[in-house]
Amino acid sequence: MLQGPGENAGVLDLGDGLAVAFKVESHNHPSAVEPFQGAATGVGGILRDIVAMGARPVALLDGLWFGSPDFHFWRAVSGIGHYGNCVGVPTVGGATVFDPAYAGNCLVNAMCVGLLDSGRLHSAKATGRGNLVVLYGATTGRDGIGGASVLASAELSEDDADKRPSVQVGDPFMGKKLIEVSVELVESGLVESLQDCGAAGLASALSEMARDGAGIDVHLDRVPLREEGMEPWEVMISESQERMVAVVRPQMLEAVQAVCARWELPCTVIGEVTEGGALRAFWGGDVVGDVPAALLTDECPRYEVERRADPRPSRPRPQQRVELREVWEQYDHLVGSRTVRRPGLDAAVLRLRPSVRGLAVALQGPAPGEMDPWRAGAQAVLGVARNVACAGGEPIGLTDCLNFGNPEKPEIAHELAEAIEGISQAAEALGIPVVSGNVSLYNDTNGVSIPPTPVVGCVGLVPDVRLVPGRWRRGDVVLLATAPEDSLAAEAALIRFLWKAAPHLSLCHDVGTAGVEAALGEAAAWSGGLVADVDLPGDVGSRGAAILATSPDEVAGLGSRGFVQIGQVR
Hints:
Blueprint: E1 10-15, E2 18-26, H1 28-33, H2 35-51, E3 56-66, H3 71-87, E4 91-98, E5 107-117, E6 132-137, H4 147-151, H5 172-187, E7 193-196, H6 201-209, E8 214-219, H7 232-237, E9 243-248, H8 253-262, E10 267-275, E11 278-283, E12 286-292, H9 325-328, E13 339-341, E14 348-351, E15 358-364, H10 373-390, E16 394-403, H11 410-430, E17 434-440, E18 444-445, E19 448-449, E20 453-462, E21 477-482, H12 488-501, E22 507-510, H13 516-526, E23 532-534, E24 545-550, E25 563-569
Helix pairs in contact: 2-3, 2-5, 3-5, 10-11, 10-12, 11-12
């Protein structure tokens, strides 16, 4: 692990001088109020988090929890496709769940994966007294003011329409230029640090940059504006999209400005790095704000919320009512020429050019209808790791987005704590770190909280993308692999078996919550309609399981434990 929680994204060393940066975060309330722009700017924000680490984004994944495949759902799908397709980053996977419990408060979680030279990892921390603070990208307006406070930290109600001005408006073509400029600035060694200008705008970005003792003076009247008459506080907290902040040595400023000019991006010196840890804001030469940056970050007020176990009644598993191919076919999942395995079955696989190694990537939540928070957290981790393993990837790291209701309710605070413990124990059983993530709270509508919904992303290392399981073939033996008992250790052992066996399999598919029969149907559809004659086993219950297919000659090489033969492809 090169970078864990505390920066814009987590980073893992892949060897051979290459590293992967990845993170998942939410844009739930903006998407509930205005689904197209809410989902689109969620994609834009997670792209900038990856760029801020000095990485080039190479893949997007999205998690969508909606009440039904209604107008709001399809508008969110369109927003994701619009931004990702325009910016030229493939959307390769994710999860879609329809459940009436999310009818009033949808969830839109976006994950991004990026690649970088392991020796060029960038931090958001400001360093070097006298270095310049440079804002580049789009101009600043009033759109998005209150996105973090009015939307993200408040329950929804029937009066949501008046919150639409708090939803940011995205410009993916500006976002594409921002990616190219940022990557060039990092690769050319022109910047000392980078920071995304996201939630709470400059107020958040600059306080996070100054959190470790450095100070920053910002001259808000220098910020390029697209609206007249903006007040200093509006400039400070505007969440206008497609903006980045960089710390630049004075002697590098001209070169930085030249790169931005070539891409027609505004580039403005708005401040300088100081000492003492103070974040000071100026307007017309006068100090209009002065606060120790640490009070907005590591030393901000903390409090313990009351926790009380209050188990929710179990609910029936909701049924999907849409062909999900209609969703991912709206996304370009091949742009960038890295996609070896497309979306549709478990994890996608990206090639780490020029080698034959690859990355398996997936995003998943708990079983639909799950109300036990500990199980929800563990299920999300184990399910996404199985998806990665079924694509031939050894799971190496996790990122999580914790979607919960109002934590001021003791029963919701309990759910949050229990889900975190479930994630932690499952990750420890797998022996892999959680390196980044996001928390989305107050997901309530008219006082009713969503079910506990921790969403987990996973990346796995594929030794050879030429050996990734594909489709089953005529004459193949069909096997069922299961965890022998309902325990984290058994689940972890199954996942290790799957990624090690994958190079010898023609097909490997996780058995999801719909059961073995549904998984066999998905495998047949993935294999072009080629079906298998099987004797359906008994219900595997809540244990992890996977469908395997291989030629009869390969079965002996898989060992003798962990699977049973259930049929043959005809």
